[in-house]
Amino acid sequence: MTEDFSAYVEKNATAEAKKDEKFSMHLKSLNVARHAILTKNEATYFDDVKDVYLPILDKEQGSKFTELSIFKQFTTYWEEDYNRDMANLNVLPPTQVIRVSDVVPQIVTFVEKIIESGSAYATTDGDVYFDVRNFQASGHQYAKLKPTNAGDTDKLLAEGEGSLSIGAGKKSSVDFALWKSSKPGEPRWPSPWGEVILFLLRMR
Questions:
Q1: Same domain? 140 vs 153
Q2: Do the bridges between strand 196-199 and strand 128-130 make them parallel or antiparallel, or are there none, so unpaired?
Q3: Comparing 12-21, 36-45, 71-80, 123-132, which segment has the lowest mean pLDDT?
Q4: Which domain holds residue 44?
């Protein structure tokens, strides 16, 4: 098995690296995990295999976790870690912190108003998209933060925000998500469009 793996990597590494810019990172994680399995070092085993094992575990078991407090603990940990880094850099803390998860009802109301104005629409799968064409047809210039891009708006959106929002019911490839329906194992909040996970509004 070791010889087969090494031969495969030697034969295909260059081609795989061209297809996936993260290939070398994945290969490193795989090599560390493979070494841990072969040597069976109990002291470091879990840390060594986690980059390979956790995505598999998440795929198989992640949908069972629905309690919001689990996600809250995770984000709180990294928020505190970030704040420590900023303090160590002598960066003053913000005077006020507003977390999206703390203002979901207000966000829902805000998105509802955008839909009512005709500048957004909900799909049958619970997503809400910003309707770029309708917004422009109403006399607004979408690229107002960078007017020089006004003529290339469709191209830029299709390659940027639009390309990140792929889902059933999109009217245009340039439309982007304001709100996404929650997938199994993801945090969720109630809304008129179903249980939702993500608020991505970026007005220009």
A1: yes
A2: unpaired
A3: 12-21
A4: 2-62
